[in-house]
Amino acid sequence: MRFEGRCAVVTGGGGGFGKAFGSALAAEGCNVVLADVNQELLAKNEAEINQAGGGKALAVLCDVTSGEAVQAMAAKAVESFGSLDILINNAGGSMGVPRDTIDQVKEEDWDKVVSLNLKGTFLCTKAAAGYMKQAGYGKIVNLSSITARMGGQLTPVQYVSAKGAIISFTRHVAQELGPFGINVNAVAPGIVLTGERLEKMWYGRKSDEERQAYVSQVPLRRLGSPQEISDAVLYLCSDQAGIITGVTLDINGGMFSA
Ligand SMILES: NC(=O)c1ccc[n+]([C@@H]2O[C@H](COP(=O)([O-])OP(=O)(O)OC[C@H]3O[C@@H](n4cnc5c(N)ncnc54)[C@H](O)[C@@H]3O)[C@@H](O)[C@H]2O)c1
C-alpha cells in the first residue's frame, strides 16, 4: 500500500491508460480523481474502480486545455480528498488528425494536437504545483511517447512534436520544483493496445506484414501492456523513486533507449 490516503489526479482518466493507472493507484489505497472530457468513459472507469474497493475514484468532467476548468478540477480534488499529491498528465493523443506531409499540415490540426498534449500538461502541472509546493510533497508523471524519440512511424508531426516538448518541459519543471520536494518525471511508452483507439490504429492502419515488421524491430519482440506501463508509472509516483526526477523513462521493449 504505497499510496494509502494520498490523492492522485489522472487526466484522460476515461481512457485506456487512465483506467490502468487509476485502478492500480486505487488498489494501493490512493483516492483518484479521473479527469476527462468524455462523460460516458469517465463514468465507466469510475464505477469499475469503486467496485474493486481500495481508494475511491471520483470522475470530474474537465477539458485539460481550459485553464479555468483545470483549476476547478484541482480545487475539487483537494476539497474531496484533502490534498493533491500525485498528478499523472495522461490526457493526450493525436485526435485523429491525418499524418500529412509537413507542407500539408493544417494549422488548426497543429493547434489542437499541441494544445491537448502540451498545453494540457502545462495547465495541469501549473494547477497542481501550487498545492504541492504548499504541502512540500508531490509526484508528477507526464506521458511522452516513443514517437518523441524516433519520429512518428504511425503518428502525425503535431503529436511527435508535442510529446518531444513534454520531455523538455519535464526536465525544466523538475529542476524548478525539486527544492519543494516535488518529483517530475515522464514515461515514453512504445505502442500499447490500451483500447479501441489504439486497436484501430494498430489493426486498421497496418497490414499483418507491417505489424510483424514493427514487432521485429523490438528487441523483446512484443508490445508492452497497460499493466507494464502502469507498474513503471506507479514506481515513479512512489517514494522508492524519491531521488529520481527530470527523467524520461523509455518503456518500449528496447526499440529505443536513451
Ligand atoms: N497507447 C499507446 O500506445 C501510447 C503510447 C505512447 C503514449 N501514449 C499516451 O498515453 C496517453 C493515454 O493514451 P491512451 O492509449 O490511454 O489513449 P485513450 O484515447 O484511451 O485515452 C485518452 C483520453 O484522453 C481524453 N481526452 C481527450 N481530450 C481531452 C481533453 N481535452 N481533456 C481531458 N481529457 C481528454 C479522452 O477522452 C480519452 O479518454 C496519451 O497521452 C497518449 O498520447 C499512448
SSE inventory with pairings:
Elements (H helix, E strand, L loop, with lengths): L6 E5 L4 H12 L3 E6 L2 H14 L4 E5 L5 H15 L4 E4 L17 H29 L2 E6 L2 H5 L6 H21 L4 E8 L6 H9 L3 H9 L9 H12 L10 E4 L7
Parallel strand pairs: 1-2, 1-4, 2-3, 4-5, 5-6, 6-7
Bound molecules: nicotinamide-adenine-dinucleotide.
The site of nicotinamide-adenine-dinucleotide has 29 residues, from helix 1 and helix 7.
Give a written overview of the molecule.
Helix content is 49%, strand content 15%. The model has no long low-confidence stretch (mean pLDDT 97). The chain contains 9 helices and 7 strands. The longest helix is centred in the middle third of the chain and has 29 residues, at 107-135. It is of the alpha/beta class. The chain has helices at 16-27, 39-52, 67-81, 107-135, 146-150, 157-177, 196-204, 208-216, 226-237, and strands at residues 7-11, 31-36, 57-61, 86-89, 138-143, 182-189, 248-251. It starts with 6 loop residues before the first strand and ends in a 7-residue tail after the last strand. Nicotinamide-adenine-dinucleotide (NAD) is lined by residues 11-12, 14-18, 36-38, 41, 62-65, 90-93, 116, 143, 145, 189, 191-192, 194-195, 197-198.
Structural class: alpha/beta
- Indicate the overall shape: globular
Span between termini: 31 Å
Low-confidence residue ranges:
none
Sum up the structure in keywords:
Rossmann fold, binds nicotinamide-adenine-dinucleotide, 9 helices, alpha/beta, seven-stranded parallel sheet, 258 residues
